[in-house]
Amino acid sequence: MRTEARTRSCGAEALLRLTMQTHRARVVASLGTTQTLAWASSYYLPAMLVRPIASELGVSQPTVFAAFSVALVVSALVGPHSGRRIDRWGGRPVLMTTSAIFALGLGLLAVATGPVSLFVAWAVLGVAMGSGLYEAAFASLVRLYGHEARGAITGITLIAGFASTVGWPLTAALEHGLGWRGACWTWAALHLLVGLPLNAWLPRAEYTAPAAGETPTDVKSEPAEPPLGVAISLAWVFAVTWFISTAMAAHLPGLLAGTGTAPGVVIAIGMLVGPAQVGGRLLEFGFLRRLHPLYSARVAALMHPVGAMLLLALGGPVAAAFALLHGAGNGILTIAKGTLPLALFGPTGYGHRQGMLMLPARLAQALAPWLFGLLLAVLGTRVLWVSAGLALSALAALMLIRVPSRMQDESTSTTLEEPT
């Protein structure tokens, strides 16, 4: 009788575990899809549409990119407020609203007639970006899964890592067939017809009331006040990471051309960055998830400097190695932006804290194409000394962070759980 009861108990536990895994896999697939849509129709949009937009509206291409930079600044300011809403209400209502804001911003861009309406459209898209890109998705997962959200965070970055792979050719095809305005209308429709239903399909999170006007707390976890020094170090790491990744995204072809790499080879090497990012995330999902995320972040922060030193020393023949190292490191650090605050500070008030930590990063991202372009024009390939130095400063900041043994043990134990 005891054996039979034990068998039934094990069967019930296995069924419950399978149900939870299926539920989490559905959430990851939904958020991964909506993140792909969000990134493809905002962050990766200007690269494909800047020329036709500038030509038809009678403005310069730098003006179009300036409007995009305004969107990044707006997103930085919106991020903390969006995170606070997710802490209180969960991700479902915030992300549903964001789908509508994305559609509105893209619609306004589609009907833009001059520089004023162009900047207004991108400002609205900035609101959507500040409340609907990775930080919001990470906060939504933390509200649902607490300390066990690391695997789910990795999962959505694996899917959305193909946003440029999907977004660039699709936007180009839409622009070719429908014009740039038709492309914007199509992306707006996809947010309403695909993004909104998928976000509505997310589980409801338990409402958490704010305590005496302070940041809302998660009733399932103990309050954790982050040390100021650790918070400043993380903010610096994230700002440096986003500055370098955005600068490389904008100027990698010109940088590689300066090493003597042939134009056709430059394009092929540039295409390696995306798969390398996914490869880095797979590494994090597999081997590195058994370590505290602080260690994987340290490894990732070293990859860009190593690649930069190789490129400076050996030139074009190692350009592919540089692209692979840079891409893999950037892919792991993207996950670290979500997992490090969770591991160091816990799930309490995660959304608001994440928004504050990422505010400097968004501002650095907005400045990166312009500032790095100026440095590239003056220094040539020696600008890699600048990016490598910044990356090493981020590594130094990560080395200064110490994890309490209790928190480290807790984090390690949760990463061994099945993530999806």
UniProtKB/TrEMBL annotation:
Keywords carried by this UniProt record: Cell membrane, Membrane, Transmembrane, Transmembrane helix
Protein location: Cell membrane
Chief location category: membrane
Domain Major facilitator superfamily (MFS) profile span(s) in chain numbering: 27-406
Pfam families in the record: MFS_1
Transmembrane intervals: 27-45, 65-82, 94-113, 119-141, 153-174, 228-249, 255-274, 295-314, 320-345, 357-377, 383-401
PROSITE patterns: MFS
Protein transport listed as a keyword: no
Membrane topology: Multi-pass membrane protein
Name of the protein in its database record: MFS family arabinose efflux permease
Species this protein is from: Roseateles asaccharophilus
